[in-house]
Every structure is written in structure tokens, then in C-alpha cells.
Design a protein that fits this description.
α7 runs parallel beside α8 and α11 packs across α12. This protein is of the alpha/beta class.
Length: 533
Amino acid sequence: MSTPLSNPMTLQGAVDDAFAGIRERLQAFQAQLVPREVGTVASVSTGIARVRGLPHVGFEELIEFPGGLSGIAFNLDEDGVDVVLLGDHAHVHAGQEVERTGRVMDVAVGDALLGRVIDPLGRPLDGAGPVATGKRLPIERPAAAIMDRAPVTEPLQTGLKVIDALIPIGRGQRELILGDRQTGKTAIAIDAIFNQRGKDVLCVYCAIGQRASAVAKAVANLRAKGALGYTVVVVAEGNDPPGLAYIAPYAATSIAEHFMEAGRDVLIVYDDLTHHARAYRELSLLLRRPPGREAFPGDIFYIHSRMLERATHLNDARGGGSMTALPIIETEAQNISAYIPTNLISITDGQIVLSPSLFALGVLPAVDVGQSVSRVGGKAQRAAYRAVAGDLKLAYAQFEELETFARFGARLDEETRQSIAHGQRIRACLGQSEFAPVSVPAQVAILLALNAALFDPVPLAHMAAAQQRVEAAANGLPDALVERLTDADVLSEADREQVTEAARQALATFLARAPPSPPRASGAPEATPDPTT
């Protein structure tokens, strides 16, 4: 026997109410038509697709391909559009549909990226899950206006004595690092990132066209030294499509700009722009753009200048943040007058030149002081460095000239022998091992000891131990003195004497073992009995 139904009047009322609500919704509903512009793939080549049927597409607009593949519209012709593909295009074939997105290429930005390794599209490469950010910025953005910028007044310490003393870098500066293969370019940049620990400087490391093993090594070093927590790593590997290599530094720059506009200080490393230029040359040739010098397109200068111009120091009204850029360039046979190196030398505010001959001699970092220059950083250099750097650079330049002359076997007078011996000690003190940044007080103590010729009696074989003694003494200086060395506008004579005396006491055992040196002429460095030791 079936169950009796509910009260039909109550059920009928509920049905009527439901239909009345549906009728009201239907009357209020207005269908909205969303236009979609769809085209078709005409042809596909290495990293490039020819698309027809997108008459309103804009330059550098993002286009969606089947399978989630994205592309950027580059050539806008009457009969079609050439699109640079940003991924594996093996599944893309002629006749497939593509769709406009109406937006330009952008990248995720924010604090959630710190400690992560991502590709230029913002996809994680470290296996730590998706990147949770709520903001995105276009990868191509106009540089800050001149009136929004402030002078470079604060130094960016790299922890490398030869750079901080002789080729200083300021926050907001663009300093080029260039040299042949395997001369330590990346090592200098990684050391600079290590030295920002505890200094409230965020870092962005952009690897362009590097081997996967080299990138993995760099990330492992950053993680081992505790530097990955304040660093974003953007990677476009050597086997990635040229489109990804092309957009990688722009994506990294937008990530750094987000922090700069929030009032933070940022250090960004482009490693390296040689591969970036080659990727753009490849794309340009595939796009049938007219080749110019060394087959590079005519706008190769512009693609780098518009990117590096975004590195600056903002004024207080814009938050006071800064972005310091360290672009890296690989030279061939020390030819710094080649096309791409000269372009970037003219764009940047100075260059750090690495010498293969110094590298072969074991002088690390292999910085060629004679060819390296900083056009801005001297204005931001700490007073303690300025007090000693001028004399040090002159003495080192004189030593290099005398060393070249002495190779001919000429008989040298005593003063020349002393200058060569003093220069050898300068070279030994400016060298340091990888992943071993030196603090500001220790650097100042070593430089003052060099200027006072305290290292001259020390045999070259014992210079490493002597420097360690001086560093240990500098780390034990009173806090008030350390603060003055770091922040004072002028290095007072009393502070100079106090630091020099601490270095002299640290070297007392070395000085006691050395034979007495003869009196020296005014302005000449102390003599050493055997400058070849």
C-alpha cells in the first residue's frame, strides 16, 4: 500500500512560489555577449608560429594556443601575425585555433616568491608547490621618470675587498661584469648576494641560457649559505625555447620593481645577457627581420637599454626604494670592444673586467683594476674607503707597470724593488676565496694596514694568515668605532690611528720575525729584503 501524499494545497503553494521566483530571475536576466577573436595557425617553425585571423591583435599581446601554450605577438602584418612561442610547440600544428587574451605578458610578484625558483612564466621549478601570489605586473613597463629618481648615495657592499675599495657600487647603480668564459663572473655576483644577508636587501637572480647543472649548483650554494630565503631565482635554461630566454630578464625586472616600489632595496643579477642577445638574434632571424652587425637586429641596443633603465633609486615620494643591477656579459678573447659588450658598457654606470691571465695565476677574484671603473659608486662609498682607496689604486697601478717592466730582466734599484714588493702585498690582500665575504671593519683594517706598509715585511707565503689576524682584530673593535667606520661622513685621524694600531698589534708576531728594514725615502713604501719571497 503506497504512502499518502502531503497536503496538496501546501505542495501547490510551494511549487507556485518556486516558479514565481524563476520567472522573476528570467525577467531580470539579460544575456551578455562576450566577443572572442579566434584565429588559425598558418605555419609553425622553431619557436615561431604564423597566425591568421586576428585583425585587432596588439603588439606584444598574449595569445593562447591549444594545450595551454602561450605566445607573444611580435610582427603585425596585413596578412597575418608572427607569434613568439613560450614553450614546447611540438603539439602545435597548422589549422589549429588560437585566441586573443586582450592583455600583455605579465608575471606574478610579491613576497611569496622569496625563496622560490620559477620560470619566466611564474611556474615553480623547485617542487615546492604552486606560487600563491595575488598580484601580477606586466613584464614590459616604462622606467621611472627622471623627477621620480634620487641620487645614488648609499653603498651596496659586495663583501669583496677589490670591488668595495676600488670599484664601489651604489644602491641604484648598474654595474656591468664582463670577462671570458670561466673567469669567475657568476662567482662575483653570487658573493654579492651572499653579502646582503642581514642588510635588508632582497635579491633576484636571473639565469638566462645556463646549463641546468650550473643553475642547480648556484641554487644549492644559495640554500647552503642561507641566502635563498631573501632571493628569487628566475630560470630560463639553455634548452628552453628562445622565447622564454628573451622574456626572462624582463620578468625578473618586474619582480624586482615590485619590491623597489614598496620601498625596499633590491639587487638583481642578469646571468648572462650574452645568451639573451643571442636568443633575440635567433628570434629576429626567424621572424625575417633584417640582420645588422654580427647578424644582430638593429634594436638590440634598445632591448637592453629599456630593461636596465628601470634600475634606479627612487626618491622619498615614491618610497625611497632602489634596484641595483649587475648584468653579466661573456667576452671572447678579452675583446671588450665587440658589439654587445660595447652596447652594455655605454648603457651601464661602470664595468668590472675580469682577466683570464690573472685567473690563470690564481689571483681571485681576477679583477683587472686598470680596466675596471665605477662611474657612480664613488659618490656612495663609505668615508673609510675613500680615505685609503685613492692611494691604494695608484700604488697598485704603479706596481702593475713596474711588474711588466721587471719581466725583461732589467736591474732594479732599491726603490723599485720596494714598490714591487708593496704591490705584491696589495694584490695578495685584494684576493679572497669564493663564498667568503669580508665585513666592512675588516676591510677597512686591511686597507689601512696596506697603506701603512704593515704587510710589507710579511712573506707572501704568510699573507693569508696575516690577513686572518687583522680580520680577527677588526672584528674585536669597539662597537662605537665600528659604527663610525660604517656611518661617519669623514674618517677622523683618531679612528684611523686606532684601527691602524689594532692591525699593527695583530701583525706583531710577523713584524717581530721580519728583519729590520732600512729607512725609506719620503713617500716610498717600506723596503723588504727579498721582494720575491
